[in-house]
Amino acid sequence: MTPTLVRQHLPHTGAAPRVDLRARARDWSEIQERMLVPLYEAVYERLEVGPATRLLGLGCGSGLALLMAASRGAAVTGVDSCSERLALARERLLPEAWDTRARADTRLVDGSPRDAGDAEDTDARGYTLVTAFEPIGCLAGDGEGLRALLAEATPLAERGAAVVLAGWGPPERCATASVLRVASKLAEPLRGTSGWRPALRDDLEEVAQRAGLRPDGSGRVACPFGYADVDSAVRGLKSTGLFDAAITATDQVQVDKELAEALHPYQRGDGTVWMPNVFRYLIARTR
């Protein structure tokens, strides 16, 4: 953003737009997913992710965050309902790339956290870390979707396990917020859709509280969105799913046009696009 979050993203109400899901998954993997690498690194460093870590990644997408954790020695399980993104995650986590022990400790589950818990392998339980890296706080209702995921995931974790939630920072510190407003404007004809909204200071804390988790620290991370050109920026941003309602209400051509116009202030002289952003993460603990 399971609700496919950045996946990654929470589902919109209304009819689904006609999109090439394989092409979108590839755009996410090749263009957009890397924008969150500073977030992954900051969390893994703070929590000292390593060989003793058993990680459950919610909405794991094409698996970059899992790969980074596995490279630190962690045993990783990724869950997502987007089969196109999971196919790319399997390419990244090919058994041939790891030694025998690491292969046994890497699992990808097509479905929900409950599906991971229902696996016959008893190693699917007892996670020490649960991550939900898809940033919430820009779509109305995305916190409720995350809370539903956590309700299935936290029973699989050890008592006192860390649960990491991520969210967009204040709009004034996220250049991309002005571009996301395009999605809200174009989707307005579809009443009842989950439109864009400004991130609120306590978004993550409210989700944690409703999920029965105990807050245990937070942090902010600079995650600038940088693209080779406007076309790459448009493809990357659409791959998040945040513009699905806009595409449904209008069409791909209209969304592409207005996105390109909104990106113009962030295009540099060499044609590249650069948008500074700040994301926030919350570390909570299971009880």
How does this structure look, described?
The protein contains twelve helices and nine strands. It is α/β, with parallel strands linked by helices and 287 residues long. The chain has a domain at 21-174 and 194-226 and 277-285: Rossmann fold (3-Layer(aba) Sandwich), CATH 3.40.50.150. The strands form two sheets. It has a seven-stranded mixed beta sheet, sandwiched between helices. Strands 7-8 form a two-stranded antiparallel ribbon. One of its GO terms (biological process) is methylation. One of its GO terms (molecular function) is methyltransferase activity. Keywords: Methyltransferase, Transferase.
State the helical fraction: 25-40%
Strand-residue proportion: 15-25%
CATH homology-level superfamily of the domain at 21-174 and 194-226 and 277-285:
Vaccinia Virus protein VP39
In round numbers, the mean pLDDT is 87
CATH topology of the domain at 21-174 and 194-226 and 277-285: Rossmann fold
Global outline: globular
CATH architecture of the domain at 21-174 and 194-226 and 277-285: 3-Layer(aba) Sandwich
Name of the level-1 CATH class of the domain at 21-174 and 194-226 and 277-285: Alpha Beta
| Low-pLDDT segments, ≥5 res | 1-14
> How many strands appear in the DSSP assignment?
9
Counted by DSSP, the helix tally is: 12
Give the N-terminus to C-terminus distance in angstroms: 26 Å
| Helix-strand pattern | HHEHEHHEHEHEHHEEHHHEE
**Could you say which structural class the secondary elements and strand pairing correspond to?**
alpha/beta
Protein name: Methyltransferase domain-containing protein
Pfam families: Methyltransf_11
Keywords: Methyltransferase, Transferase
GO molecular function, one term: methyltransferase activity
